[in-house]
Each structure stands twice: as C-alpha cells, then as structure tokens.
Amino acid sequence: MPWIQLTVSAPEKHAPLVGDMLQGNGAMAVTYRDAQDNPIFEPPLGELIYWQETLVTGLFPAETDLKPILANLRKSSYFKDELQYKTDALEDKDWEREWMDNFHPIRFGQRLWVCPSWRDIPEPDAVNIMLDPGMAFGTGTHPTTALCLEWLDSAEVAGKTVVDFGCGSGILAIAALLLGAKQAIGTDIDQQALIASTANAERNGVAERLAVYLPSQQPELQAELVMANILAGPLQELAPVISAFVAPGGELIMSGILERQVPAVQAAYNKEFDFSPVRVSEGWVMLHAKRKH
C-alpha cells in the first residue's frame, strides 16, 4: 500500500514528545534522525540520545488527512515559533525485494568472501561465507567486522582453537573455521545470537566444529586466538574475563573501538599483552595483541 510521511523539525528536548504526538494521531511508525546528519557513537547503556535539532518522521497511510494532525501539533506549547514540517509520498514497493537488492557479495583481503544466499558466488574457489543480513548480529558491512575479517584473511589460523567472544552471527568464528581453524567456541549474552551462529555454521558446513555458550555456561579454556568485536566499554570492563581465554603466546583481536578510545582499551590489557600497530577504518579501530609468556 502507498504511504505518506510527515516530518517535523523539533528541538532535542521535545523530540520524544513530538514522536508520541504523531503516534497518538495514528502514525504507523515513528523515526528520528539528525537534521545535520551527525552520528552518535556508543551512547550510554539504556540511554536514548536525540540531536540538538531532530527530524521526527511519522508514517501514515496515503489516504490520511494530515490537516487535523498539523492543527493538533500547532496547538502544542512546544512550537512557540512556526511549525516546520514537510510531507513526502512513498510509492507502493516490494520493500523486501528492494532491501535484498542492496546487498552484494563482499571480499575481505585476498581470498575471503561474504555472500548473501540470493546472489551468485563471484569466486567459487575462494573461501566463501554464506551469510544473509539479519538482526544486526554482524554481516561484514560494518568497518569493525570488516577489519577483523581482513585480518583473518591474512592470518595463519590453521589447526588453532578460536574463541569468538560476543559472537553475534558467528561470522568471525565461521570465517576462522573455513580458513582452517580446528575448532571454535562462540559466546554471547543473547540467546538469539547463539541460535543465529549455530544456523549460520550449519549453512556453511562447520557446525560440528563450533560450540556456542551463554556466559554462565561457557567452559574454562585457553585458545590460541581470541576475537572480541564488541564495544570499548565492555572490552575494558571484561578485560580479566577476555584475557583469561588467551593462552600464553596466543593472539587477541579486539574491535568495536573508536580511535579516541584506543588508549583506555590498551591500558586495560597492557600488563599481559604486547600490542601491534592499530588498524583503522572510517574512524573505527582493530587492535591486535599477543599475550606475554
């Protein structure tokens, strides 16, 4: 069905109230974005952040009369100045098809590819990970995951035991297994991530070499390679837990870190690890370190 969008410009403190008003007037969905297109990285846990000037968009069926809705907004004390808004018509589309068309196979390094199931494999003889975009668990499109995959492509992982800490979709563990790792252990606080990792491992023919656990269930072990693509805050807080997984002389890969956060993350691990030069992509950093003997 066709739709119409009503986008209202609101100051930061009023943005959630304007969103509530749009929903109260029949909006099927409400979204928020910055009028200046400035990103927000890693907001505090449980905190919603709005922008100084926020664009609040309500989605309505195309036949909706917006005049009463605009009249209700103008009555609000939030808009002491003139109400700034615009409307946009959205044609009826096959949104699922359009979404699928945006995803293509991506190569990382020289031999590693991530391929959606509905696309042809560009290089059948390469190392191909069959993985469909899903619930933000990691598909290689974000620089943090890309940095880790590119490192794996150039690393020697054959015969090693690997831990994927915060495994998400399982993409890093699966990549390591396809590149020759002996076995992989994935841990995550989200049960759905463990389900996704297992399903993706089955699709790629490596399920028998991947074991997944919630933190409360994970066994004590040490591995030659540990990967943690999460965020800077948890990397610092969980340094003792993550470090304990790395065998003496083993390697640690950490990502999900902004450039300004590197010193704090390294400080949490410096006592036990020697760091290599950082790798940077689009403001995000991957850290590689070896545990001291």
Automatic annotation (TrEMBL):
It comes from the Bacteria. GO terms for biological process: cell division; methylation. GO terms for molecular function: protein-lysine N-methyltransferase activity. HAMAP family: Methyltr_PrmA (MF_00735). InterPro entries: Ribosomal_L11_MeTrfase_PrmA, Ribosomal_PrmA_MeTrfase, SAM-dependent_MTases_sf. This is Ribosomal protein L11 methyltransferase. Belongs to the methyltransferase superfamily. PrmA family. GO terms for cellular component: cytosol; ribosome. The keyword DNA repair does not apply. Pfam families: PrmA. Signal peptide: none annotated. Methylates ribosomal protein L11. The keyword Transferase applies. S-adenosyl-L-methionine binds at T145, G166, D188, N229. Its EC number is 2.1.1.-. It catalyses: L-lysyl-[protein] + 3 S-adenosyl-L-methionine = N(6),N(6),N(6)-trimethyl-L-lysyl-[protein] + 3 S-adenosyl-L-homocysteine + 3 H(+). It comes from Pseudidiomarina tainanensis. Its main location: cytoplasm. It is found in: Cytoplasm. Keywords: Cell cycle, Cell division, Cytoplasm, Methyltransferase, Ribonucleoprotein, Ribosomal protein, S-adenosyl-L-methionine, Transferase.
